[in-house]
Amino acid sequence: MKKIMNVPDQFVDQSLRGILKAHSSLLKTSSEDGRALARADAPVKGKVAIVTGGGYGHLPLFLGYVGKGLCDGCAVGNVFTSPSCETVVNATKLVSGGKGVLYLIGNYMGDQMNFEMAADIVRAEEDIETILIRAADDVASAPREKWEERRGIAGILFAYKIAGAMAERGHSLQEVEKTTRKACERIATFGVAFSSCQLPEAAAPIFEIGDDDMELGMGIHGEKGVKRCKMMNAQELARYMVDRVTEDLCLTKGSRVAVLVNGLGSTSQEEQYILYGEVADILKAQEIDIAKAFVGEYVTSMEMSGVSVTLFHLDDELEELLKDCMYTPFIKL
Fold first, then answer.
1. N or C: which end of the chain has fewer CB atoms below 10 A?
2. CATH assignment at residue 279
3. Is the Cβ–Cβ distance between 114 and 83 less than 8 Å?
4. Model's pTM, two decimal places?
5. Is residue 328 in some structural domain?
């Protein structure tokens, strides 16, 4: 597989270098650590700061959600690898505005461990109050009664939007935490993959899949799905995915949702909109109202071909927060 790069072990740092050159008016990095990045106006005094982070290779996740009304800072790891504890500490110090810091990450063991260690350090050395929330929306990875054990995948977009809106409105750390946790419980995602992806230093893709096959319920780190089957057409695929998330969230007639159809890296927008049209028809037939729709690449897995469908079950508070204006160099929401 062909990739634009110089040497594989500099893939992340040279990509970050390009990002900072392209968006120097909106993003900055710590002088101590080029993997700790923040919005250019950080720290914002008197506002809860939100720090995210994770392995590289998922743009616009995680770094792409650093901006007004979303996250204040991000700790970047190697491709599909957790950021170091030191980088999380540096990102925290870069954005802390005196009102506490919310760590909002995907539910992965390495990320959780390093963010928890960083929290202990900044509390002890900098007197910065922190709270950790893990987005856990992957329906395929655990049943609803164990939803907090699920992997975090594309649904973290909605958690960012809710936490960011609450913080921008001036709420306390505890208030931001409460509403963001409520949001996380009401988000469900199901994904499928049509091809694997290849790490910069690897000689072959992470897994092989036949031209007529697809993976159901895969992760975003190149993990295989929970089941392999023959390719479905758009209508069949939409039905399969929507059924799993609507049943998981116990949606009924009159429920209101935000919908995300997310491309994983090399699925065209034309295909994504075909799928969204089918998803919208299914929800309309079930009399489930769509308050807002998102179609595009929001959480990728290098050049993986595939899509995911996320539903966010709204109430009045969450729907109002979802409308708040937010902006990053990568995405206007």
1. N
2. 3.30.1180.20
3. yes
4. 0.96
5. no
pLDDT tens-place string over residues 132-175: 999 999 999 999 999 999 999 999 999 999 999 999 999 999 99
Annotation marks residue 23 as catalytic: no
One domain, residues 158 and 243: no
Look at residues 185, 209, 224 and tell me which one is the last residue of a structural domain: 185
Residue-number span of the structural domain to which 268 is assigned:
187-322
Name all contacts of 61-66 with Cβ < 8 Å and 24+ positions apart: 61/156, 61/157, 61/298, 61/299, 61/300, 63/16, 63/19, 63/37, 63/330, 64/328, 64/329, 64/330, 64/331, 65/157, 65/160, 65/328, 65/330, 65/331, 66/27, 66/37, 66/38, 66/39, 66/328
Residue 327 included in any domain = no
Report pLDDT digits (tens) over 269-328.
999 999 999 999 999 999 999 999 999 999 999 999 999 999 999 999 999 999 998 889
CB 154 within 8 A of CB 299: yes
> Running DSSP on this structure, what letter comes out for residue 5?
-
Is residue 58 part of the annotated active site? The answer reads yes
Residue for token pair 């009304």: 69
Strand order in 101-106's β-sheet?
Answer: 27-29, 36-39, 73-79, 49-56, 101-106, 130-135
Of 23, 171, 221, 313, catalytic:
221
